[in-house]
Amino acid sequence: MDTATAHKPSPLKLDELRLVADAHLQWLQSEGRDGRRANLSGQDLSGLDLQGIYLPEANLRGATLVGTNFSQADLQGADFSQSILERTNFRQTKLEGANFSRAEAFCAYFDHASMVDANFSHANLKEASLRGAQLTGVKFREASVMGANFSGANLQQAVLRDLNASEAVFNGADMTQTDCRDANLNFARFKDTILQETNLRGASMDNVVFTDTDFSYAIDLEQRYQSQSIESEKQSIQKEMDNIQKSRDEVAQYELNVKRQKKDLINKRRVIASLNELEGEVSESLVKYMRQFRFIAIFWFVVVAAFATIMFYQVSRIGHENLNLLEIAVVLFILVSVLGAHIFSAVIALAVAKRFARYVRLRQEKLESSKLTDEDELSMATYGSQQDQPSIPPTTYL
Question: How far apart are CA 195 and CA 26, in angstroms?
Answer without folding.
Answer: 45
